[in-house]
Amino acid sequence: MGQRIKEFVIDYKRQWELQSMVIPGIIFMVIFCFVPIYGLTIAFKNYTVIDTLASAPWVGLDNFKIILSDEYFWDAVMNTLGISFLKLGIGFVIPIIMAIMIYELHLGRFKKIVQTISYLPHFLSWIVLGGMLITWFSTSGLFNELLLNLGVISKPSNILLDPGKYWWIATLSDIWKEAGWGTILYLAIMSKIDPTYYEAAKIDGAGRLRQIWNITLPNMKTIISLNLILTVSGLLGSNLDQTLVLMNSQNREKAEVINSYVYRMGMTQGDFSYATAVGLGVSVVSVILLVTANKISSKLNDNQSVL
What we know:
Oligomer: single chain
CATH architecture of the domain at 61-124 and 166-300: Orthogonal Bundle
Strand content: under 5%
Helix content: over 70%
C-alpha cells in the first residue's frame, strides 16, 4: 500500500497540471452525483415535508408493495414501453439512414444546408416545439387544413385530444427533433473510413448500395451497437419535457409515462417516498437492461464489448 501511494505521488508530481484539471470534475461528481444517493433512503421511509431524512420513520418495502398494486403506475409503464418501442423501432434506424444519405451527397454547399436544417430542431426546447405542435394539431391548424384539402377527412378535429393517436405523435415528434442530431456520430465514423475501400469496390463492380452494405455499415458496427445498448437501457425513461408539454386531460390515459407519473406523485401530490421508490425501481431495471443489452451485443460482436 505504501509503495502504491508513493508511486501515485510521483506520478502526480510529474503530471500535476493535468491531474489538477481533474479535481474540479471529481468534486462536482461527489457533490451532485454521490452525496444525493443518501436521499434514496426516502424510498424505504414514510417521508413528509416536515421530516428530515434522519427523522422519517422506516417502513421497509411498503412503498414497493404499493407499486405492485398501483394500476395507474402500470398504465404508465405500458405507455412508456409502447412509446419507447416505437422510438426504438423507428427512431433508431432513421438517423443511420439519414447519415448515410448525407454522407453520399457530393455537393458541399447543399450538404451543409441539409445538415443545418436537420440539426435545427434539436436546439429548440420542447416548450417551443410543443407550442408549434399544439397549434398545428388544433382544429383550425395546419394538419387539419391539409387533410381537409386532400379529402382525407371531412370534419376537422383536435388531434392532440385523441388518446389513440398520442403514441405516434410522441414518437414522430421526437424523431423530428432528434434524428438530425443523431447523425453526427455516424457521420464522424464514416468520415474516418479509408476511401480506398470504396475505390477497390468500384473496381470489383460494386454499386453504391453494395458499397454501403459491405463497407459503410460494417465500419459503423461499433457505434451502432453502442447507441443500441444505450437506447435499450433507456426504454423506461421517456421524455419528461415532451410529455408535460403535449399531455392534457383528454389524452392522459395514453400520455402518462413513468417520468411524468413520478413527477406528479412527488411534486404535485407530495408523496416523496412513493415517487422515490418508483424512480429507484426504474433505475434498477434500467441497469439490468443495460447489462443485458451489452452481453447480447458482445455475443453478436465476437465477445467484444463496446462498453
